[in-house]
Amino acid sequence: MGTERVHDEAWHDDLYRRYRQPVMKVAASFFGYQQRDEAEEVAQETFMTAWEKRETLGDDPWPWLYVTARNHVYNRQRLRARLLRALVRLGEPSPPHDGGLRAWERRYDFAPAWRAISDDDRELLQLRYLHEMSDEQIAAVLSIQPAAARKRVQRARGRLRKVIEEMDSDLPAGAALPVGRAGALAPAGARKGK
Questions:
Q1: Less Cβ crowding at N or C end of the chain, within 10 Å?
Q2: Which residue, among 41, 168, 65, has the nearest Cα to 108 in the 3D structure?
Q3: For the residues 19-36, what does the mean pLDDT come to?
Q4: How far apart are CA 141 and CA 67, in angstroms?
Q5: Do residues 60 and 137 touch, judged by C-beta distance below 8 A?
Q6: What is the pLDDT of residue 85?
Q7: Within 10 Å of residue 124's Cβ, how many Cβ atoms?
Q8: Long-range contacts of range 154-160, CB-CB < 8 Å, 24 or more positions apart?
Q9: Terminus-to-terminus CA distance in the chain, angstroms?
Q10: What pLDDT score does 128 carry?
Q11: What global pTM score does this model have?
């Protein structure tokens, strides 16, 4: 059989077991973590697409799965936006706005800084730190070279650091960002020694 990989049902089951949680994390990061049902639906769509495209998947399926999940999220968001525009045209009331930060965001004082950086920088940092992708995997997602991916992540991290330093006078320039579990920034109280 050589080195050729067989893309059969056992392969798909293994793919699902190995990547279900990372794909759900991708969807949740775009939707907001309170929409678990929608993240699960996107994961199902992603693995259905993986089955349909199984012969084109390479040895490292994670970048492809990330891009596919992201595209399914974007398609859902575009559909929702069109639906909301149609409802507004029909005179239906639009869904209520939450009026500010969600409770989980208020616990972390980096949320305003996160929103202050560009969408591209947020995606780069999510790819590296939330989805734990290597330079090679990020490069595959963005269709760039691994060295360029590494440099873009460094620059994005630098821009986020600058915004945080401007917003948080308690964090001296050049100091390491306090981190909690899994490399996440520590809660506001922990950052200020509370």
A1: N
A2: 168
A3: 84
A4: 6
A5: yes
A6: 64
A7: 25
A8: 155/121, 156/117, 156/120, 156/121, 156/122, 156/124, 156/125, 157/125, 159/117, 159/118, 159/121, 160/113, 160/114, 160/117, 160/121, 160/125
A9: 61
A10: 85
A11: 0.54
